[in-house]
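Quick note —
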Amino acid sequence: MTEETRQPAFAHPAEAQFARILDFYQMEWEYEPRTFPLEWDAEGNVVTAFTPDFFLPEQNLYIELTTLRPKLSSFKNRKLRLLKELYPDVNVKLFKRRDIRGLLVKYGLDGEAAGYRGDETQEETA
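Predicted structure written out below.
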């Protein structure tokens, strides 16, 4: 995304912070550009899908951010396993809570990084 384009309504503050880092380094990105069907019911309707948070076209890489505590992230890990099985040519990288915190600290966003410790968590909704 470029500065001229409007910022999307991010689902979580970590996504907005990650976008700021990408913008600072002038990396082209798209927010939630594609949804991957993962499971279907007997009638062929999609019952489980996965929409990675970011796509970096220059790297041909999808990025998924999760702020879930490790104990709560099994649902997201399951979706990533299915994605890799069904779409082996799709490159996706998962940034877990500690990875997000490390990035924020590395790029001088210590205040924002403080929110990614302890028991604070985002509940899984889909």
